[in-house]
Specification:
single chain, about 500 residues, alpha/beta, 5-stranded mixed sheet, 21 strands, globular
Length: about 500
C-alpha cells in the first residue's frame, strides 16, 4: 500500500455516492488518507470538524493508474510539431515546411535542445507508401537543424544541419534507430529544468483531471532525483513509481534502493519503480524481434541476448527489483519468458504486443504481469496487418493473456499514445475508435469491469482500508454508451483524500 502523503486530508465524508453498476447511495468516510468506513447514505455519524461533501449520486471508483509513461517526453511532445496525421513522408515534410515558413529564423519550439529550431513528433513511417530521406527533409528546412521523432520513439529523422549539429552519422535516409535514436532523444530533452518541470506540471494536471492518481514513469534517465526535485518544487498531482534502467542499476543498489521503496523527500508520493530492460525494438520501426521475417526481410533486433537478460533478472531478484522487460515481437516475448522461467522471478513484460499461441499459458504459469497499451492496437492495426499478416489474431492479445492467467496492467506509453486512461479502456473494451471504423479482432476485447480492474492495480472497486485515491465520475462507467465511456466526464480526483482535481464540486 502506498504511504500516506504528509498533506493527506484527515477527515472527509463523500456523501451520497454510488458504486458502478449499483443504484444504492452510500457515504464513504476518508480518514488520514484511507477509506475508513463505507455505509448506507446518512448512516455515518457526523464528526464535528469533518468535511462532508454531497456528491449527489455521482459514481466513485478507485483512482486510475497509467502503468507505462515517459513523462518528460510526454510533456515535451505537447510543445512540439504534431506529425501524427501525416500519411506519407512527403506530407510530414510539408508540415515541417509550413512550420518553417511561419516562424522566423530565430524562432522555434525547443527553447534549448542544443540549439535546435525545429522538433517534430509522432510520424508513423511503417504505413507510408514513400520513405523518409535526408534530401527530402533538407529541401524543406532552409538549413535549420531539424529532428523528427517517430511516434514509438525508436526512430529519429534528421536533416543534414541537425546531423552536423549533434555530430551523428546518417545515411541517405536521414534515420537513426534504436539506441542512437534514444541518445539523440535524450539530448533533445536537455532543456532548462524550470521549462520542463512547468510543462510536466501542466501535463500532470491534465492527467489528474482524467482520474489519474499514479503513473509508472519509464523516462530514460536517472529518474528518482528528477522527481524529488519536482516534488520539492510543489508537484502533487499524482503518485509516481520511478523506473530504473540497467545502466543505473549499480547506482541504485549502492544507494540501497529497491522496487516499492518510498523515497524520503517525496511527500509520500514517490516510490522506486521496476527495473526496465529493453530487449527489442518496435513495430513501426520494424525492429520488434519476431520469429518470422518481415515482408521486406529481417526479423527485427534482439538488443539483449537471452543470456544477458537472465543475468539481469537474477541480479534484479537478488537486489530487490521487480524486472519490467520490454518485449514487443513474438520472438522477444519468447526470449523474455524463457529468462523469467530460468531466473525464477516474477515481474512484468511491457507491451506483449505479439505473442506465440503456445506462450500465452506461460504468462500465467510464471505469475507475470502483462503491462499493455490498448490504444496501440488502434494506432498500429494497419502496420500490424501489413507486417504481421495472417497472424494478427495474436497481436495486442488482451483476452488471450487474461484467459491464460496473466495479470493485466493498462497504460499508454505516452507520448506513443495520449496519457488518457479512458481512451485506453475504450480501446480495450471495443477494439475500435469512436470514428465509425469497425472493431479490430473484437475477440480480444475486455469487459468494462476487467478494464477498470486493470487500470486500478487490481482494485476494481473501493474497499475498506484502501488508500483514498479516488475518481468521482458523472456517469456509471458500466452503463454509459461507448462514446461517453471513451470521454468519461470526471468530476473530481483525490490522492490520499486530497483533491488534485475538482475540489469545487
Amino acid at each position: 500500500m502506498p504511504e500516506t502523503p504528509a498533506d493527506a486530508v484527515t477527515d472527509l465524508v463523500l456523501a451520497a455516492v454510488r458504486f458502478p453498476g449499483e443504484s444504492a447511495l452510500r457515504d464513504v468516510h476518508v480518514l488520514e488518507g484511507l477509506v475508513s468506513r463505507i455505509a448506507p447514505a446518512g448512516e455515518l455519524p457526523r464528526v464535528p470538524g469533518s468535511r462532508v461533501l454531497d456528491l449527489d449520486g455521482r459514481y466513485v471508483i478507485p483512482g486510475l493508474w497509467d502503468e507505462h509513461v515517459h513523462m518528460t517526453q510526454w510533456a515535451l511532445a505537447t510543445n512540439r510539431i504534431d506529425l501524427s496525421s501525416a500519411a506519407s513522408a512527403r506530407e510530414a515534410a510539408d508540415v515541417v515546411r509550413s512550420y518553417v515558413a511561419d516562424h522566423g529564423p530565430t524562432e522555434g519550439n525547443s527553447d534549448a535542445g542544443g540549439g535546435l529550431a525545429v522538433v517534430g513528433v509522432g510520424f508513423r513511417d511503417a504505413v507510408w507508401g514513400d520513405v523518409p530521406s535526408l534530401d527530402l527533409l533538407d529541401g524543406v528546412t532552409r538549413g535549420r537543424p531539424t529532428a523528427l521523432l517517430s511516434h514509438d520513439l525508436h526512430c529519429v529523422w534528421l536533416n543534414s544541419a541537425a546531423a552536423k549539429r549533434f555530430n551523428v552519422p546518417v545515411d541517405e535516409s536521414g534515420l537513426l534507430r534504436e539506441e542512437p535514436a534514444f541518445e539523440l532523444t535524450r539530448e533533445l530533452g536537455r532543456l532548462p529544468d524550470t521549462v520542463v518541470d512547468a510543462w510536466v506540471r501542466e501535463s500532470a494536471q491534465a492527467a489528474a483531471a482524467r482520474g489519474i492518481v499514479g503513473i509508472v514513469d519509464f523516462e530514460m534517465t536517472w529518474n528518482p532525483d528528477v522527481w524529488l526535485r519536482r516534488v520539492a518544487g510543489g508537484f502533487g498531482s499524482f503518485r509516481v513509481d520511478a523506473g530504473i534502467y540497467p545502466q543505473d542499476l549499480d547506482r541504485a543498489v549502492a544507494e540501497g534502493l529497491r522496487t516499492g521503496q518510498v523515497l524520503d523527500g517525496g511527500a509520500g508520493l514517490l516510490r522506486v519503480g521496476p527495473l526496465k530492460v529493453l530487449i527489442d525494438g518496435s513495430l513501426n520501426t520494424r525492429t520488434a524481434y519476431c520469429v518470422d521475417p518481415y515482408p521486406h526481410g529481417g526479423r527485427g533486433l534482439l538488443t539483449v541476448s537471452e543470456a544477458e537478460l537472465l543475468d539481469l533478472l537474477v541480479r534484479a531478484r537478488e537486489s530487490g527489483f521487480v524486472p519490467a522487460v520490454h518485449a514487443i515481437g513474438d520472438g522477444a516475448n519468447e526470449v523474455a519468458l524463457n529468462a523469467f522461467a530460468a531466473a525464477g522471478v516474477r515481474g512484468r513484460i511491457e507491451h506483449a504486443q505479439f505473442v506465440r499461441s503456445q506462450d500465452f499459458v506461460r504468462f500465467g504459469e510464471l505469475g507475470l504481469t502483462a503491462s499493455v497499451q490498448p490504444a496501440h492496437a488502434l494506432d498500429d492495426r494497419d502496420a500490424a496487418d501489413s507486417n504481421w499478416a495472417g497472424r494478427t489474431d495474436r497481436v495486442f492479445p488482451l483476452r488471450s493473456l487474461l484467459a491464460a492467467g496473466a495479470t493485466l496492467a493498462l497504460g499508454s506509453d505516452a507520448p506513443v499514445a495520449p496519457l488518457e486512461p479512458w481512451l485506453a479502456m475504450s480501446a480495450a473494451t471495443t477494439r475500435a475508435r469512436q470514428d465509425g471504423r469497425g472493431p479490430w479482432h473484437p475477440e480480444q476485447a475486455l469487459t468494462r469491469p476487467e478494464a477498470l480492474t486493470a487500470s486500478t492495480r487490481g482494485r476494481g472497486r473501493i474497499m475498506l482500508g484502501d488508500p483514498a485515491d479516488l475518481a468521482v465520475l458523472d456517469g456509471d462507467p458500466l452503463e454509459v454508451s461507448d462514446a461517453v465511456f471513451a470521454a468519461m466526464p470526471v468530476a473530481a480526483t483525490l490522492v490520499a483524500g486530497r483533491f488534485t482535481h475538482g475540489s469545487g464540486i
